[in-house]
């Protein structure tokens, strides 16, 4: 059973092992909240529809740690600063050593170039001085540029006993139609991610999104019997064609998920 940590109205995964299980075994992608400058990192936040699927299939439970909402104390801030400084110093040392190995392979050429540029052999710095100078120029690692390692510790070990969150709390963030559409697509073997950037609710992939492009843009229609403006449907269909994906309208009718694919034909 995977624990989904519910904080600030988001269901998150902090364990790398759980993230791997969700991705490889259950085709649950989620979105990374953390970042090491340019590299996504844990925690992973899940869509409400992903959470509903996992809970309904008894693959996960939603838990809440009240102490995670506590503001950091002066001791916490001091401890964090000490860890950051330790990591920064270690990274500076490692980077400088690696850079030194690279420079030593070409230092003779650098020295020769500096001597030619000065047009003299006197008052030229020694090989060791030039090496140190080059190291100092290219080995500046700061708090802003350092790469944080992915460190994590089980939340259970530090935050006491959690309380279980009812699924109804998550259902407030979505709709029965979206949950049904997501579950139906998942049962068909697809990978699903948010589709907002393409004007839909979901993007659907035939394989892992790290390897495959999306093939469908899904827009959920909550009230299929209501009048949907023609211009919106036309725009959505043209959008799908322009990004080389099938635009699909999905609705929940009498307990079954129904799909309509929009095709744009040039005349």
UniProtKB/TrEMBL annotation:
Tell me the GO molecular function terms: nucleic acid binding; tRNA-intron lyase activity
Q: Name one GO biological process term.
A: tRNA-type intron splice site recognition and cleavage
Task: Please tell me whether the keyword Ribosomal protein is annotated for this protein.
Answer: no
Q: Which residues cross the membrane?
A: none
Q: Which GO terms describe its cellular component?
A: tRNA-intron endonuclease complex
InterPro entries registered for this protein in UniProt: tRNA_endonuc-like_dom_sf, tRNA_intron_Endo_cat-like_sf, tRNA_intron_Endonuc_cat-like, TSEN34, TSEN34_N
Source species of the chain: Ignelater luminosus (Cucubano)
- Catalytic residues identified in the record: 205, 213, 245
| Its biological purpose | Constitutes one of the two catalytic subunit of the tRNA-splicing endonuclease complex, a complex responsible for identification and cleavage of the splice sites in pre-tRNA. It cleaves pre-tRNA at the 5'- and 3'-splice sites to release the intron. The products are an intron and two tRNA half-molecules bearing 2',3'-cyclic phosphate and 5'-OH termini. There are no conserved sequences at the splice sites, but the intron is invariably located at the same site in the gene, placing the splice sites an invariant distance from the constant structural features of the tRNA body.
Instruction: Give the EC number(s) listed in the UniProt record.
Output: 4.6.1.16
Q: What is this protein called?
A: tRNA-splicing endonuclease subunit Sen34
Per the database record, which ranges form the tRNA intron endonuclease catalytic domain?
177-253
Belongs to which family? Belongs to the tRNA-intron endonuclease family.
Provide the top EC class.
lyase
């Amino acid at each position: 059973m995977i624990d989904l940590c519910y904080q600030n109205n988001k269901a998150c995964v902090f364990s790398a092992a759980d993230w791997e299980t969700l991705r490889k075994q259950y085709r649950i992608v989620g979105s990374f909240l953390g970042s090491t400058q340019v590299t996504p990192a844990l925690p992973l936040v899940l869509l409400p529809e992903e959470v509903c699927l996992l809970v309904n299939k008894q693959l996960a439970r939603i838990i809440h740690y009240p102490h995670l909402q506590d503001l950091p104390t002066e001791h916490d801030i001091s401890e964090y600063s000490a860890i950051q400084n330790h990591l920064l110093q270690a990274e500076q040392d490692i980077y400088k050593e690696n850079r030194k190995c690279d420079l030593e392979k070409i230092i003779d050429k650098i020295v020769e170039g500096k001597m030619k540029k000065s047009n003299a052999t006197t008052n030229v710095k020694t090989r060791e001085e030039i090496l140190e100078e080059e190291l100092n120029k290219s080995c500046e690692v700061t708090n802003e540029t350092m790469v944080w390692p992915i460190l994590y510790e089980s939340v259970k070990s530090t935050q006491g006993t959690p309380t279980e969150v009812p699924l109804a709390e998550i259902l407030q963030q979505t709709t029965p139609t979206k949950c049904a559409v997501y579950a139906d697509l998942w049962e068909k073997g697809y990978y699903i991610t948010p589709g907002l950037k393409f004007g839909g609710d979901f993007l659907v992939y035939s394989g892992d999104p790290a390897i495959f492009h999306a093939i469908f843009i899904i827009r959920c229609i909550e009230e299929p019997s209501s009048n949907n403006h023609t211009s919106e449907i036309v725009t959505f269909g043209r959008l799908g064609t322009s990004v080389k994906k099938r635009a699909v309208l999905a609705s929940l009718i009498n307990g079954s998920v129904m799909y309509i694919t929009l095709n744009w034909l040039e005349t």
